[in-house]
Specification:
By secondary structure, the chain is of the alpha/beta class. The chain folds into two domains: about 10-50 and about 295-395, Alpha-Beta Complex (Aspartate Aminotransferase, domain 1); about 70-290, Type I PLP-dependent aspartate aminotransferase-like (Major domain) (Aspartate Aminotransferase, domain 2). Helix content is about 40%, strand content about 15%. It has 15 helices and 13 strands. The protein has helices spanning about 10-15, 20-25, 55-65, 80-95, 110-120, 135-145, 160-165, 190-200, 240-245, 260-270, 280-290, 290-315, 340-350, 370-375, 385-395; strands at about 40, 100-105, 125-130, 145-150, 170-175, 205-210, 235-240, 255, 320-325, 330, 350-355, 355, 375-380. The protein has a seven-stranded mixed β-sheet with strand order 2-8-7-6-5-3-4, sandwiched between helices. A four-stranded antiparallel β-sheet has the order 9-10-13-12. A two-stranded parallel sheet has the order 1-11. The longest helix is centred in the last third of the chain and has 22 residues, at about 290-315.
């Protein structure tokens, strides 16, 4: 009806980018792919296969025989799952994590949003390396929290000394992801320790997202931060069950932080979701207790796919892998066009869907260093070695 005033939209939401994976999917709407060159979708880091059958059977049995699985559960998660996480993380990291330092969330994104909300509000600031994980940046933008961007070079590793220059009286936290999304790089233990010491020295939180820890190329603990008896005064650890046990649709993640912090996190969780999904938690617990060998095999398969892609890129002139690990490769392309145009060109010219670096960092006209326009993220874990060989072949056929 003309003359009717539209309902308002929060201007911070209006200024936030659209969900990148959904945006990329629109690029393939109406596009036909020939039978001999079907679409290879490497845009999203999500397992496409269901969980192992024994895990599905355990979840189905709970659905049928455990009446309380249909009810609201504890806001911070099932006590038995919190306790199992505390036990296994204490063993794996060589530190002491108590159940009251663990909360279960409806996915790792909720683990991030809930903890960040207890730390910072509109007008506050956090330090965020680029390339960033886009949902982290989106949440900061929607909440009005300034992201003080920490550029990285071709090694994709953030520099603690440069980070220290960004700290001001509004800074509340440093955010790291390792193994990194989107870069695939694994932050060395010494680098994580340096950032931990920096955060501790300035009274900041270090939010460390380790969603992809199960696919680290090194065995053993990726860092020693949990060995500090007062780790929870500085470190906030985030985890996801989505990749480890293929539980993406069941939304199960975790936060490890101080009990005082989790009291505040509980307020967020109760307001947003009331409790994490019960069946997903039951599946996560069963997986932790019974699928250690299976998960070890999954890790080796991901490492084989990583090696296949690294080998393949060695025969691609003009391309450069900046990082490759866990679920992701981050590559410099050889084309003169910016990465958002290159990514859309790949759909039509190669039948490949990847995400452009412009979804993970600032463009030059936004103060970026040009890395965003020059790079692409490849979610290689979604293709087997044969499929990745096909990816390389298709890229090799493109003209610069």
């Amino acid at each position: 009806m003309s003359g009717v005033r539209p309902t308002p939209v929060n201007p911070r939401y209006a200024a936030t980018i659209a969900p990148p994976v959904m945006e990329a999917r629109r690029w393939i709407d109406g596009v036909s792919f020939p039978e001999d060159r079907p679409l290879i979708n490497l845009s999203q880091a999500a397992p496409v296969a269901p969980p192992p059958e024994p895990l599905r059977q355990a979840m189905a049995e709970a659905l049928l025989t455990v009446p309380e699985s249909h009810l609201y559960g504890p806001v911070l998660g099932l006590p038995v799952l919190r306790a199992e996480l505390a036990i296994q993380w204490s063993t794996g990291y060589g530190g002491v994590i108590r159940p009251d330092q663990v909360a279960v969330t409806a996915g790792c994104n909720q683990a991030f949003t809930s903890t960040l909300s207890t730390l910072a509000g509109a007008g506050d600031a956090v330090i965020l390396p680029t390339p960033w994980y886009f949902n982290h940046k989106m949440w900061l933008d929607m909440e009005g929290v300034e992201a003080k961007l920490l550029p990285t070079g071709d090694d994709l590793l953030p520099n603690p000394e440069e980070a220290e220059t960004l700290i001001c009286d509004r800074t509340r936290a440093i955010i790291l992801v390792s193994p990194n999304n989107p870069g695939g790089v694994e932050y060395p233990a010494a680098l994580l320790r340096a950032f931990y010491d920096l955060a501790k020295r300035h009274g900041l939180a270090l939010i460390l997202d380790e969603t992809y820890r199960d696919f680290h190329s090194q065995t053993g603990a990726p860092h020693d931060l949990f060995t500090d008896p007062d780790w929870d005064e500085t470190l906030i650890h985030l985890y996801s069950f989505s990749k480890a046990y293929r539980l993406t649709g069941h939304r199960v993640g975790a936060v490890m932080a101080s009990p005082t912090r989790l009291i505040e996190v509980e307020k967020f969780l109760d307001t947003v979701a009331i409790c994490p999904p019960q069946i997903g938690q039951i599946g996560a617990l069963w997986g932790m207790r019974h699928l250690g060998d299976w998960l070890a095999g999954e890790r080796l398969e991901i490492l084989r796919r990583r090696d296949a892609l690294v080998s393949g890129f060695q025969r691609l002139p003009g391309w450069q892998l900046l990082g490759c690990g866990a679920y992701f490769a981050y590559a410099k392309h050889p084309f003169s066009q910016p990465s958002d145009q290159v990514a859309q060109r790949l759909v039509h010219d190669a039948g490949i869907l990847v995400l452009p670096g412009t979804m993970f960092g600032p463009a030059k006209d936004q103060g970026g260093n040009g890395q965003a326009e020059a790079t692409l993220r490849i979610a290689f874990a979604n293709a087997d070695a044969e499929g990745l060989s096909d990816v390389v072949d298709r890229l090799a056929q493109l003209s610069t």
